[in-house]
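Q: I have two molecules that I believe assemble together. Could you output structure tokens for the complex as a whole instead of separate predictions?
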Amino acid sequence: AQKITQTQPGMFVQEKEAVTLDCTYDTSDPSYGLFWYKQPSSGEMIFLIYQGSYDQQNATEGRYSLNFQKARKSANLVISASQLGDSAMYFCAMREGRSGNNRKLIWGLGTSLAVNP
Amino acid sequence: DAGVTQSPTHLIKTRGQQVTLRCSPKSGHDTVSWYQQALGQGPQFIFQYYEEEERQRGNFPDRFSGHQFPNFSSDLNVNALLLGDSALYLCASSAGTGGARGNTIYFGEGSWLTVV
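A: Yes, here they are, computed for all two components at once.
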């Protein structure tokens, strides 16, 4: 069964508008971490934001915020004030267990975001 | 502060050949993980090295092997290349001590391998 599900293969957003990229996850481990990465066509995987399962507040990093709904097992990425340079693939990933013991990330299939001028 | 560096960036190999890909982790990081990303897919975990030992391994055959050096850099070796090994190979670095530092996992630009 898919542990990370990204249901939006492709998304379009107008420049300067906000966009939400969906991610749902499945785990029975009470300790886990959720990551979002941006992958431009060059291939580099760029770290955007991290949310731990025990974190009380939603993570924010500049224009990126993570809408973490633990009961629904969702970790949606919100990009505010979209820029043309935001056009890329976006991946949601999960690490199960505590970070000291496990570095393996499980990935979704990604969402391709296109920002229109 | 140098990020994660990988080499080579692109290479073409023939079926049956062997390839070695190299990765230098971000400064201050001591754990290296390797991922294979086929076209249109998310990355798949190959293995992870910490303290010069393989600590975790994904579902990859023994043709995939690795090594970590005392300076924390790492090699990924693939023997007897198959057409299906064509992919982007990503190296990830992180701090092995866990805690908050272990939550930041950074990737290099990847090595594009084409097997013909």
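A: One point stands out. The mean pLDDT of chain A is 92.
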